Amino acid sequence: MPPPLTAAGFLRRPPPPPFPVVPPAAPFAVLLAILMTPGTRHAPTHQRELLSTATEAPAHALRQSPLVLPIPGFDAGELDWLLFEQAGVLTTAQAEQVLTPATVRAHLRQGRWRRLSRGLLLAENGLLRPEQQLWAAVLVAGRDAHLAGTTAAIEGGVQGLRPGPIQVIVPADRCPSVRLPRLPGDMPSVRVRRTTVFPERHRQLARPPRVTMARAVIDGASWATGDNEARDLITRACQQGRVTVRELREVLRHFPTLRRRQLIRTTIADVEGGATALSEINLARLCRRHRLPGPDFQQPRADATGRNRFVDAHWTSARLLVEVDGSHHMDVEHWSADMLRQNEIWIAGDRILRFPAWLVRDRPATVAAQIREALSAGQSELRPPARRAR
Questions:
Q1: Which of 108, 131, 198, 365 is the most exposed place for a label (fewest CB within 10 A)?
Q2: Are the beta carbons of 181 and 142 closer than 8 angstroms?
Q3: What does the alpha-carbon distance between residue 283 and residue 169 come to, in Å, rounded to a whole number?
Q4: What is the pLDDT, as a whole number, of residue 56?
Q5: Domains in the chain, ordered, with CATH?
């Protein structure tokens, strides 16, 4: 049996020691990727293992590649470092800079490499992994392309978002068109947008290149398919500590005519006021629309065991609390815990109203009417009794 080959066609070296010594000539971005602790799918790209070994299957059998590639050693060439940095995806121009065109054609003809599209290659013969899909989207979009929107937010660590097309932005002065060549079937759709506002401080040092979290959230909210999707992105990014309100406002001021600008400003203000979930954002919007006094969100309240619990909304003057329950509250354990907590609140003399999240979203008038009645009842009980005239 012939010895195993690397993606570049050279003899494969034995696996490196657990703590490899990095060659001094290694690119700075690669050093960062090596020093960072590998994470999960939700961790930023530059904190995960970047490349896999080449699949040794025949060209007609496409299958998923292993997830770990040995770090190039001291004797590694420019191609090995390039493949390590870019997860095995490279342009034809990059390949022909370190190899001869005849060698590149030989890799493709013998099935060791794949041609993904015009001018784009994969130095493996397996199916594209998610990280390779991101690299392919950035490289096919051309020079100065960066991951953006929801894609960049997910790569930056925001959890719970629904992945969609890979979103990429390019400077508007770079090229007049954003049309892409045809991509293979194992590649999701790519949506490229041009921008006239792309300062250096909006660019994140990452592999693949992406925008900063604040820019990703603002762009993603503007590009969202619906208002609730935009609010959900802003709320999740802030609640999970990936971005601050100040950073969002700093980016937003660069876009005076941005789509959904007023909605984004209002949502940022709600988050700053304490709202930490989309259901609480909807409740705050409901109060403004129906002219109800604004509550305090996420106020701590000690339970019977002395632990601090946070209530969704609290009108202190009327001693009224409102909880907006998501679908997870229907679980048996959550349900019983919510009932016990509700009993403690009633025993302490406060009122509590509970609404499912869908009712706040779809029937706001019904929710507003009950809150208004509860506020009126609470205020009347707090008024001192009128003195009888003698």
A1: 365
A2: no
A3: 34
A4: 34
A5: 28-125 (no CATH), 133-272 (no CATH), 282-382 (3.40.960.10)
Per DSSP, the residues of 8-36 read TSSBPPPPPPSSPPPPTTS-HHHHHHHHS
What torsion, rounded to 10 degrees, do the Cα atoms 249, 255, 257, 262 define?
-10
| Alpha carbon 357 to chain centroid, angstroms | 23
Kindly report, residue by residue over 299-311, the tens digit of the pLDDT: 777 766 677 777 7
Could you tell me the maximum CA-CA distance found in the chain, to the nearest angstrom?
A: 113
Residue given tokens 């010895």 in the structure block = 3
pLDDT digits (tens, 9 = 90+) for 72-96: 878 888 888 888 999 899 999 999 9
- Report d(CA 372, CA 277) in Å as an integer: 22
Tell me how far apart the alpha carbons of residues 240 and 178 are, in angstroms, rounded to a whole number.
33
Q: Which two tokens stand for residue 180?
A: 């892409």
> What is the DSSP code (8-state) at residue 384?
P
pLDDT at residue 19 greater than cutoff 80: no
Statement: residue 180 has pLDDT above 80: yes
Averaged pLDDT, 164-168: 94
Query: What letters, b where the CB count within 10 A reaches 16 and e where it falls short, cover 218-255?
Result: bbbbbbbeeeebbbbbbbbbbbeebbeeebbbebbeeb
CA–CA dist 368, 75 (Å, integer): 70
